[in-house]
Amino acid sequence: MTYNVHHCNPPSKPDFIDIPAIVKAIQAQNPDLVALQEIDVNTQRSGAFNQAEEIAKALNMKFFFGKAIDHGGGDYGVAILSKYPLTETTVHRLPTKPETNGEPRVLTTAKVKLPNNTTIRFGSTHLDAQSDSVNRQLQIAEIARIAATEKLPFIIAGDFNASPESGSIKALDQHFTRTCQTCEPTIPVENPTKAIDFIAYTPAKKFKVIKNTVVPEKYASDHLPVVAEIKLSGK
Q1: Domain of life, per the record (predicted)?
Q2: Phi and psi of 138, rounded to 5°?
Q3: What is the C-alpha separation between 172 and 156, in angstroms, rounded?
Q4: Which helix (H) or strand (E) holds 68?
Q5: Mean pLDDT of all residues in the chain?
Q6: Would you place residue 84 in the very low, low, confident or very high pLDDT band (cuts 50, 70, 90)?
Q7: Cα(104)–Cα(65) distance, rounded to whole angstroms?
Q8: Which of 84, 86, 108, 222 is the most buried (most CB within 10 A)?
Q9: C-alpha span between 158 and 69 (Å, rounded)
């Protein structure tokens, strides 16, 4: 599952933090792994707690938070939730061109040990939001470089802030296989028009997509969550 949670603030309720709504949305899908974006930790707007930790506790999952920037006296970034043990947790800094004043972005990864004792790498990311972004191209290139050094089957998920026809996603598709090819839109939550949230994997031969679903959860965040059921091949 990938879910941009809008710092757990329902768009219809400004200044209100509703972690139980995010928990309920995730719980309804019962995912093994979740990539979260727009997570607050000890910020003025959200309160003195780690949102990833609170969500993980409620779901009885493991978690790892990856800080991207300082925000409101605390931290802001992405996170991974997992039913299974997480090791080798890493925050990879992604590049931005200084002259663009782009917000710093990260890819957070972890090694995940599955119940059958196989292991994979799982990553959560949130790419640059500027239109026609040169930064997204740089960030995809860095993610591809990281993936090229990876010996484990690798799944990444997140808010790529780019639609399938964009240069950024075309660049992503050169290195990863997305779980949807004709992708349902994920924003806005009311009458969505754009697909920008994706799950993708490499190498292609190691995975088989059973199904990919955009969940019509319209209250909890300004993005719809995406869930993919993926079979891991032993080949």
Answers
A1: Bacteria
A2: -65, -40
A3: 11
A4: strand 62-71
A5: 96
A6: very high
A7: 15
A8: 108
A9: 17
Q: How confident is the model at residue 233, as a pLDDT?
A: 82
Whether residue 85 contacts residue 113, with contact meaning beta carbons closer than 8 Å, is answered with yes
- 187 phi and psi, to 5 degrees? -140, 155
pLDDT of residue 133: 86
Beta-ladder partners of 226? 2, 214
In the block, residue with structure tokens 């607050």: 40
> What is the rounded distance in angstroms from the CA atom of residue 16 to the CA atom of residue 98?
34
Distance CA 228, CA 235 (A): 20
Is the confidence at residue 215, as pLDDT, over 80?
yes
The CA distance from 32 to 114, in Å, is: 9
pTM, entire model: 0.97
Mean pLDDT of the region 167-190: 97
Sheet holding 177-178, edge to edge: 86-94, 105-113, 119-126, 154-159, 197-202, 177-178
Written in H, E and C, the secondary structure of 76-96 is EEEEEEECCCEEEEEEEEECC
The CATH classification number of 2-232 equals 3.60.10.10
For the chain, first and last CA: distance in Å?
24
Domain boundaries, the chain: 2-232
Q: Which two structure tokens, joined as six digits, stand for 151?
A: 């010996």
